[in-house]
């Protein structure tokens, strides 16, 4: 996905994801529709510090041309396995429980067909389809750097699931970029 942004990244053929669908349906207003091309990464870890956090950016080909009609989405779902608590989405707009999606973070100056939402979290637009020669990525738009964080209980086992999907189409893909070394689950000093 390195820049410049000179082509549309679009493909897949995978199905949806029930966990991401549930998170989107629970927001106000709910986002419903068919999820396609869902991709996830999941693992367990034991918390060492009382807080976890990592930095991320969300990029999408939907920005600009299709930001009013299609809303790719993703979630970082954290579950305390030890306590058996309900899963929590950490990929939210700061100080809210609103998931990070194309609909929820967009800038009307790149498509006047819909209003801006949380525009302060929209980072850059790299044009479609001609591209911007200096674009660092081959996506139409990207958010500002954001932080996913949560308190955790040291010694508890947690499950985290990172999942991203297209909504209502299987085209114009999206991506999540994690800042290298930012996934902080506590310092472990090994000999």
What structural class do helix, strand and pairing data support?
mainly beta
Q: Which series of helices and strands comes N to C?
A: HEEEEEEEEE
Distance between the termini: 37 Å
Please indicate the percent range of residues in DSSP E strands (runs of 2 or more): 25-35%
What number is the mean pLDDT?
87
The biggest sheet amounts to: 5 strands, antiparallel
Residue stretches low in confidence (pLDDT < 50, at least 5 long) are none
The Cα radius of gyration reads 17 Å
Helix content: under 10%
Q: Quick one: how many beta strands?
A: 9
What's the number of helices? Answer: 1
Gross geometry: globular
Characterization of the model:
Helix content is 5%, strand content 32%. The protein is built from one helix and nine strands; from the N terminus they run αβββββββββ. The protein is globular and about 50 Å long.
Q: Layout of SSEs?
A:
Blueprint: H1 18-26, E1 35-46, E2 51-60, E3 73-80, E4 88-89, E5 122-125, E6 141-143, E7 146-151, E8 157-167, E9 174-178
Antiparallel strand pairs: 1-8, 2-6, 2-7, 2-9, 3-4, 3-8, 5-6
Keywords:
9 strands; 191 residues; four-stranded antiparallel β-sheet; 1 helix; five-stranded antiparallel β-sheet; globular; mainly beta; 5% helix; single chain
Quick synopsis:
The chain has 1 helix and 9 strands, in the order αβββββββββ. The chain is mainly beta.
